[in-house]
Amino acid sequence: MSDHYERVKIELQQMKEVESEAAADVEQLSPASVSSVPTDVSFTARRDLSRSSINGRSRSKSRSKADGYERQVNAKQLSDLTQQKSDYAQGQSRVSNEPDLTIKGTARLLKGKTAANGHVESCQRQTEGKCEDHGKEDGKCKVAAKKRRTVTVDTSKAKTSLEALKMSIRQLKWKEFPMGRRTACDIYWHGVSFHDNENIVSGQVNKFPGMIEMLRKINLSRAVRTMQELFPEEYNFYPRSWILPEEYQLFSTQIRLLKDNDATLKPTFIVKPDSGSQGDGIYLIRDPADLRAISGSQIKQAVVQEYIQKPLLIDKLKFDIRLYVLVRSLEPLEIYIAKEGLSRFCTEPYQEPSQKNLSHVFMHLTNYSLNVHSGNFVHSDSCSTGSKRTFSSVLYRLASKGVDIKKVWSDIIALVIKTVIALVPELKVYYQADIPPGKPGPTCFQILGFDILLMKNLKPVLLEVNANPSMRIEHEQEVSPGVFEYVPSPVDEEVKVGVIRDTLRLMDPAQRKQHVTSNTGGGSPEEAIVVETGSDEKEGLADSLPSLCLKQVFPKYTKQFNYLRVVERIAVIFLRFLGVKGTMRLGPTGFRTFIRRVISSCSSAVRAWNCKLSNSSFSMASVDILYIDITRRWAGMLPDSREAGKRPTNHDAIYSTSSLPRPTHNQKAVKQPPIKDTLATIHHSAFPLAYSRMCLQAFIEAFFYLAARRSKALPLREQVLLLLEVCEGALEGQSHSEKPRPHRSHTTTNPASSQSSAPTTFSSPALTRRRHRPLQLSAKANTEN
Ligand code: ADP
Fold first, then answer.
1. What is the value of pTM for the model shown?
2. Is the CB of 282 under 6 A from ligand 1?
3. Is 629 within 8 Å of 675 (Cβ atoms)?
4. Is 468 in the pocket of ligand 1 (CB under 6 A)?
5. Is any atom of ligand 1 closer than 6 Å to the C-beta of 785?
6. Which residue has the higher pLDDT, 284 or 659?
7. Do residues 400 and 19 lie in contact, with contact meaning Cβ atoms separated by under 8 Å?
8. What share of the chain has pLDDT > 70, as a percent?
């Protein structure tokens, strides 16, 4: 124990030192920004330069990489205390730099982080504690451990997450199959997508079908926008965005009108290619006309977004936050957030955008992959200094300045839950298409990388979500001129190994079977910050490992966020009417059936309640016109289309992140005319029904239209909720007369089809589907960042 006290003493000393350091003026430049290199080349040029120089380097794998891994916790170390002590001594300098502190009510949050990566000393403490606590029961524990079947993991497709994954598996004493396995594994770890391994019929895969597609910039923007239409205040954490090229005119006109109204307005916009990552192809503009000047008449598929001009700075540097989020299941929806994340710093002091600095990539873009090539980039062995740090070290810094970090965390948790809620409807459609109900298949989970920016007023803003966040725990370093080696990155290891290991722990098949989500109500996101993960330990997950670094936030906060799951309810109706055709799109017959069975055959009570859609003014001919019009517009969202996807958006109240004024009533008039106007003019004979079928987004648009038609005077959200009630009521009535489906075990049940805790009252049909993915797929998609 004397070692332990010695360590506490050192930590306290460190605490004081870090505290006084943090109290120093935050506006002082860090070493990262002391020397400055000219960065006034264009983004693309700079990137190219960086790339070519890297490509030309001779790369040699560093010995120290292997040495670094030796320092990590593994199964052997866990049972070998002598070894642990020497390991601890080696790791001392790193650990002592971490602000494992008790400050301003953040104690437990910050305390939790040291456990994130199963550092030797924390494992040791826990192991020792267990021995003391359990005493005589030790023998029993060993018997129980022996009885437990070893969990098997197929790591053959893990790609760049392999090293962190291997370490995690070692810590868990699970069995790895690096070359795959002829018989089934419990867990399949894929580096890119659900389809990395085909023909998996059981177990669990660490990717959801469709996640890559959904997290491409345009699709994410669309999903959030749909939610903004219904809940503008709740979804104001996403910057105002326009989809290019189809909304170029809208973008151009809106900004012109805004500038006409206020000549002092100097907005900046960031243009992000749809399938780009790592800052690739991103540039800033100050006027819509610049877009034309840069890309000519052929504007590529991209999102143009309001640039957040006043980010929070530390040491005068812009930074962003990478948070790891585990979607453990879609049905029921389960979300976990890693208590520790990364903060990635720019390497040139920030200035608000001006024509002069617009192309200063190291000033405006926080991407690690870009800044690592700046002469100012600081690799650090400490988690609280350098150009890549732990998020808790940043929080600590902010707390020492009096910032209410509990509020910051609670806002971030809300942002994460709301974003996942926006993605779920479409993900359920993908899921059902890929893992048809009634057929054996795996279940899925996925670690997502949320990129979040804090504004100067501490409001978190969502930048993007990565389907394949980099899980590399090493970085390239120039050890001598021109010689680059991969060396372990302590900060990455600290965060990422914990995230992977604890994801595995949560997906342990034995645990999953037992898992009953007991916490489905009270509390607030704010409480999540201060409540430790004791529940996980109660569940018996911990064994000799540190407490979980992943914190459940959903269903924990169901009460606060479930009301947002409106589009998901529409998706459930959509899935129900997809029929047996096995597509992700609804055919005209399915749409007609939906109208006939749900809309037109409202119960008499509903009809009495002014169900206008059931009267003759909405004939089947109108239904077909509606179907064709909307389907054609959404089918037009192919790369060279100019006409698709212009559903009017409620821009009011969406943009509290925005420095731009909200559009006035007149400005809104530049949007597309409502559907009913186009219905009158459309000539459909030229458009064969078979040309395209209705995707979920188009169905949602049709649903909104139908809802608005029923109850014109109400706000959209009310309209939609009323129609949903009618639909669900009608379907519930019908499903009572249908035979109940047999319930299947968790490991083979399609979450999209099981509606046990979905925010609706009826289940989708047990239909067998053939695999078909009509939405555009991109090979590159959302690659590692
Ligand atoms: P990528 O997938 O290419 O990394 P991101 O959307 O993450 O694209 O943007 C790259 C970087 O640009 C972010 O890390 C952030 O620093 C900056 N950035 C992106 N969007 C905005 C914005 N709306 N306002 C300010 N900075 C932004």
1. 0.74
2. yes
3. yes
4. no
5. yes
6. 284
7. yes
8. 61
